């Protein structure tokens, strides 16, 4: 059995209880070593076999799983954050299905959630933004034409930009071309929930310069939108004049 486990955003104690227990009971762990906090491996038993997938191809990962599964071992495939976001699990699942290997998924705390917590913000502020776009800049991995950054920027809503720390000059240009103003607030969220976490509040105009001046070129999530600013409106949820099923 293979358990795809979301490791959380970084901190050892931000994995779910279910995920922690799966690590404790695992016979084999294959973890995304370039991003997953190695402290999470401390939950594993000393006898557990551990593989770092940063050095492995898809075929090598599947080979390890096939061997372990044939020996009735419990396998954890440990991904950063939540595996549903840029986790590359679909290609693994298709392979597992072709070999009749059982699997399930344990969700994790994505970095876009940890980033909002660290920045002390809410993505869906009434009257400001009611939608969140999770996306990335086009780099070596292409994006569909309708999902180019400038197209998405036209919505002027809340945005969490993954995997784009090395492309902030291009990101800045695309956001402005798409319709955001130069003074739109941004947050550079570097290694959120890790000991060396940094949250840098800036604007689109200063985004690239602030990345360079802070020597950040990877492992940062970039938040964009007016939800980070000073404007806000109270919700109707607790408005005394707003009737609900529970409050007349």
UniProtKB/TrEMBL annotation:
Pfam family, one: TP_methylase
GO molecular function, one term: precorrin-4 C11-methyltransferase activity
CDD domains: Precorrin-4_C11-MT
Keywords assigned: Cobalamin biosynthesis, Methyltransferase, S-adenosyl-L-methionine, Transferase
EC number: 2.1.1.133
Record keyword rRNA processing present: no
EC class: transferase
UniProt domain Tetrapyrrole methylase: residue ranges: 1-207
PANTHER family: COBALT-PRECORRIN-4 C(11)-METHYLTRANSFERASE, SIROHEME SYNTHASE-RELATED
Family, similarity comment: Belongs to the precorrin methyltransferase family.
NCBIfam families linked: cobM_cbiF
Protein name: Precorrin-4 C(11)-methyltransferase
Name of encoding gene: cobM
């Amino acid at each position: 059995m293979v358990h795809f486990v979301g490791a959380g955003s970084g901190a050892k104690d931000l994995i779910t209880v279910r995920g922690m227990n799966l690590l404790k009971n695992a016979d084999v762990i294959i973890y995304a070593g370039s991003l997953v906090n190695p402290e999470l491996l401390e939950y594993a038993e000393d006898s557990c076999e551990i593989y770092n997938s940063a050095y492995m191809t898809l075929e090598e990962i599947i080979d390890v799983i096939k061997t372990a599964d044939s020996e009735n071992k419990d396998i954890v495939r440990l991904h950063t954050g939540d595996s549903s976001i840029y986790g590359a699990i679909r290609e693994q699942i298709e392979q597992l299905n072709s070999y009749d290997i059982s699997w399930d998924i344990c969700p994790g705390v994505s970095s876009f959630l940890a980033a909002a917590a660290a920045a002390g913000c809410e993505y869906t502020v009434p009257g400001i933004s009611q939608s969140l776009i999770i996306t990335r800049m086009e780099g070596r991995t292409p994006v569909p034409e309708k999902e180019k950054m400038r197209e998405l920027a036209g919505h002027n809503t809340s945005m969490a930009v993954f995997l784009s720390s090395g492309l902030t000059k291009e990101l800045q240009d695309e956001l402005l071309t798409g319709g955001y103003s130069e003074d739109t607030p941004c947050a550079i969220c570097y290694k959120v929930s890790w000991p060396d976490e940094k949250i840098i509040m800036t604007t689109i105009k200063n985004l690239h310069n602030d990345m360079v001046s802070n020597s950040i070129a990877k492992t940062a999530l970039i938040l964009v939108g007016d939800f980070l600013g000073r404007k806000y409106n109270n919700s109707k949820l607790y408005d005394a004049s707003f009737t609900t099923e529970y409050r007349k």
